[in-house]
Amino acid sequence: MAYPHDQLKRNMREIRRFLTFAIVGVIGFAVDASVLYLGIFMGLGLRLGRVFSYLAAVTTTWALNRIFTFNAPSHRGLWSEWAHFSVSQLGGAAANLGVYYLLIRISALVAAHPVLGVAAGSLSGLTINYVVARVFVFGRGIRYKRRIESTVSDDYHS
Asked: How distant, in Å, are the alpha carbons of 12, 15, 106 from that of 5?
């Protein structure tokens, strides 16, 4: 039987992990925005610049999350873990990039200040990315409890 204080400890650990993930996300946001502005300065434009900035941010957040948020040894090689993390973040990326591209298209303010679109996009992908990273990249996937097999044989019911 689980005691309430044990459940509270597990909940607090999960809250701490989510907050660490969010802080890493803020760092990823800073990388994302910085690389985007560098790309714009180099002539890549709003769209292509964002592709490179997103890749830089994903790589940064993977490295920081594996060290600070989930701090468990990898059961994959580093390259494989990075690839799993990058692919796992595609749902959040779709939300993130979709919001960004929508906002730069419909808002002159966001087109003039793309950091606003990066921020809105980042927030839209946060929860999706956390759950997927927690369960499928740095966790062991979804585990189901085994059903207890009946001790009564099928012959008995015949």
From this structure: 10, 15, 50
pLDDT at 12 over 80: yes
Between the alpha carbon of residue 71 and those of residues 2, 21, 49, 104, the distances in Å are 25, 12, 31, 36
pTM for this model (two decimals):
0.69
Contact 63, 79 (CB under 8 A): no
**40 burial via Cβ count (<10 Å: 0-12, 13-18, 19+):** middle
Give the residue extent of every domain in the chain. 11-137
Which residue shows structure tokens 């803020």?
26
Q: Which amino acid is at 137?
A: V
Q: Which of 39, 86, 43, 36 is nearest to 61 (CA)?
A: 86
